[in-house]
Amino acid sequence: RGSGRCKGQPRPAARGEGLMDAWGLPASAVIGGKEYRINADFRDVLDILQRLDDPAEPEFVRWQVAMALFYEGYEDMPARDRGEAAEYLARFINCGREEAENAAPAPKLLDWRQDALVIAADVNKVAGCEVRALPFLHWWSFMAFFNGIGEGQLATLVSIRDKLRRGKKLESWEREFYRDNKDRVDLKRPYTAEELAQRHRLEKLLEE
Q1: d(CA 124, CA 121)
Q2: CA 40 to chain CA centroid, nearest Å
Q3: In 3D, which of 120, 107, 111, 106 has the Cα closest to residue 190?
Q4: Do 23 and 138 meet the contact criterion of CB atoms below 8 Å apart?
Q5: pTM passes above 0.90
Q6: pLDDT at 6
Q7: Phi, psi of 31, deg, nearest 5
Q8: Which residues neighbour 112 within 8 Å (Cβ) at sequence distance 6 or greater?
Q9: How far apart (Å, rounded) are the C-alpha atoms in residues 163 and 22?
Q10: Cα-trace Rg, the chain
Q11: pLDDT at 20
């Protein structure tokens, strides 16, 4: 697995990339003919994913916030270029791969925030170091480590979630694991904007 030595990466020098090269680590994007530096560290992208997954905000707002976090100088980007910018961001998050047209959304079996500790532990094993201590680690490099995860706690969590979603019978050890770790296995459903507003109203009533 990991080499035991993981010193992170220097931040890549900015170079314009209209298309993504799977063997490169893009540090900038050319949008509407202009080059923008991008925030490509894995922590930046995890923050962006969290914002995009926030049901308390309208989708348009989520994407505006995500692009402002991703592109340096986004506030000066012409409105006509922002659709292209959103497509580039989506492709970057997907490590340069295009989503299949009309592909059905995959079922959610993992949550970057809820599963953070388990993900970090397994990624660290693959990387051979504590990746959270690195000053910079490109999102694509982080995902290469993530995709190298084999058997372990994360695989167990995802497998049990998938079986429960499909109504499949759990093995005896899986039932025992689920019984002992139900709060970890069951994905927390985020509050919608309406639910958050109702919760705040109830909290105010309780404070009176």
Answers
A1: 5
A2: 12
A3: 111
A4: no
A5: no
A6: 73
A7: -120, 120
A8: 46, 49, 50, 119
A9: 33
A10: 20
A11: 61
Tokens of 188: 């927390």
Q: Which residue type is seen at 131? A: V
**Tokens at residue 17, please?**
């990339």
What SS3 class is residue 207?
Answer: helix
Tell me what pLDDT residue 203 has: 58
10-residue mean pLDDT series, the chain (208 residues): 60 56 87 96 96 89 96 96 96 86 77 94 96 97 95 93 94 95 87 57 62
Judge whether 22 and 96 are in contact, CB under 8 Å.
Answer: yes
CB atoms within 10 A of CB 151: 9
